[in-house]
Amino acid sequence: MLATILHKPGDIRCEEIADPKILQPTDAIIKLSASCICGSDLWPYRGLQPVDRPMHMGHEYCGVVVEIGAEVRTVRPGQFVVGSFCISDNTCPHCRFGFQSSCVQREFMSGAQAPYARVPLADGTLVATAEVPSADLVPDLLAVSDVLGTGWYAADAAEVREGSTVVVVGDGAVGLMGVLAAKEMGAERIVAMSRHESRQKLAREFGATDIVAERGEEGVARVKDLTGGVGADSVLECVGTMESFDQALACSRPGGTIGYVGVPHGVNFDGQRLFFGQKRMLGGPAPVRRFLPDLMDRVLKGKIKPGKVFDLQLPLAEVADGYCAMDERRAIKVLLRV
Amino acid sequence: MLATILHKPGDIRCEEIADPKILQPTDAIIKLSASCICGSDLWPYRGLQPVDRPMHMGHEYCGVVVEIGAEVRTVRPGQFVVGSFCISDNTCPHCRFGFQSSCVQREFMSGAQAPYARVPLADGTLVATAEVPSADLVPDLLAVSDVLGTGWYAADAAEVREGSTVVVVGDGAVGLMGVLAAKEMGAERIVAMSRHESRQKLAREFGATDIVAERGEEGVARVKDLTGGVGADSVLECVGTMESFDQALACSRPGGTIGYVGVPHGVNFDGQRLFFGQKRMLGGPAPVRRFLPDLMDRVLKGKIKPGKVFDLQLPLAEVADGYCAMDERRAIKVLLRV
């Protein structure tokens, strides 16, 4: 099959490789309905994360089970499934506490920018739908796998509640999903920090009540203006740079909460700054598995349309153009037809 | 009156100064029933915090109101009051959210290691009892002012719940109060990390179910053993050094919560470490004012005896001996008879 390999920063190719096979009795093989490119794929693509050997790219997926290992019990061939980018057994103590992204058997999914993929720990990782959904729902269900699940976790970690005032730092796909999540959770005011017109528009569609285009001190001043000088109850940090964390810390009120889901790169916190800032913080790789049933249900019932975040569709063979478009911020998120 | 002045690190003296006076119409003057020395007083005493000019020491207090400013409405001369070490108006948005230690008018109390003290923003800061309590309750009520309030906040910030597994890092007075707080909040298992026999004994009295004397990796291994390999739901960080934060991070489970109340000195966090550790964190100066009515009520009803934390009583004139005893860890906490 054709699959996506990153050979070195900037060198991404679609190449012929062997089809995936069952390696463990807990594995499943799925035929993907679609795949996509993640903002986090850009870290190694941009050389900001080491590429020691060719990387099989892609960790967001949904599709139809074609084969299962001997020990798989909860999914069977023919079923449509969505899985998390974090592989988990969903039975260990951390999973039972709802932190499947810290599962004792955690692996990170890879190789999903391809027509077929092997999913380890299929019972713990995959959630099946009752029926194979119609094709028009595939982008929405694909989004659940990571980008929506991660934005949702940002809002959950930031303790968004009915009536909350929320600031979303970052207008990438995850930030936009954070806006959608905050809206679904009942936030009253959702401030999207965005400088890009097309993203501002989408943020408003997903539920943003205010847009702040300024950054740094000016951005903080605007947020303070919008919140009567108080700051936000909840801030979703969806970037992962020191600049974005500075923004998040300065925009939240004392006792407010920051949910952070951008993998930190070059980020360091001074202890006294956090102490006297008095902000609650929780971040990490999103435990998407916790949210999968609920989010799939919202999609299948037509309550949410997270697939709108895909503003460019390409055939898998043109994956390199997709990386380029996201790298240059010409596309918010690229869906790959596999 | 005699009052306690820190002239430079190690040079603490009891000296004659003018009695405090009403400076603002919102002030009150109280005659202290007792005062005490705080672990945080040791930072400047040890030269770990700059001493630019003579410091009027002491921020924990309870006593009888002797004079009030023209605008004070909620307390009157003759009433017994307890106040927080953080002065707050108790009306600003941060106060209303329960974070009075980030009040827009916040000041830190000073000059309370003396027979009389001026308390600014008396209406927002002080809570009066219905009657003047008996003398034997004074140590307990004095403890509420900071050390218990701070240990309580550590447990509250660490989200201790009915049935929680809790680790307390630090066996100073605040850590011991954290044990008491966790017990009151219904924790099932309370692990006190302590190497000192007298402190271990007091920890057990306050509700610790387990003592871990080891530190570093050995300490973590013991906590993991005690928690079935999982780690604690809640960790109370009551020291403020990088070593103690390392301990706290390693002892809590993914998705667990760290409440930190030791003012961080030389503490720095790497962003990726916090991200992949997936620990919820909240710290800061304790909003004791939020807890005062409840904690005073528990003391007055005899439910808790936080005053046990004072294991040395000295007359104010011997305050230097008190600092020395705490610096050398010969005393957990020193009560000063004023």
Short description:
Chains A, B: Pfam families: ADH_N, ADH_zinc_N. In chain A, 31% of the residues lie in helices and 26% in strands.
Give a verbal description of the structure.
- 2 copies of one chain form a homodimer.
- Chain A has helices spanning 42-45, 93-96, 122-125, 138-157, 173-184, 197-206, 216-226, 242-251, 271-277, 288-300, 319-327; strands at residues 2-8, 11-16, 28-36, 55-56, 62-68, 80-83, 86-87, 107-108, 116-119, 126-128, 165-169, 189-193, 210-212, 232-237, 252-260, 268-270, 280-283, 312-315, 334-337.
- The first copy, chain A, is of the alpha/beta class.
- Chain A has 2 domains: 2-148 and 286-337, Alpha-Beta Complex (Quinone Oxidoreductase, Chain A, domain 1); 151-283, Rossmann fold (3-Layer(aba) Sandwich).
- In chain A, the strands form 4 sheets. In chain A, strands 3, 5, 6, 9, 10, 18 and 19 form a 7-stranded mixed β-sheet that branches. In chain A, strands 13-12-11-14-15-17 form a 6-stranded parallel β-sheet, sandwiched between helices. In chain A, strands 2-1-4 form a 3-stranded antiparallel β-sheet, covered by helices on one side.
- In chain A, helix 4 (138-157) packs across helix 10 and helix 5 runs parallel beside helix 6.
- The model of chain A has no long low-confidence stretch (mean pLDDT 97).
- The A-B interface holds A 93-94, 97-99, 101-102, 157, 228-230, 240, 242, 245, 253-255, 260, 263-272, 274-285, 287 and B 93-94, 97-99, 101-102, 157, 228-230, 240, 242, 245, 253-255, 260, 263-272, 274-285, 287.
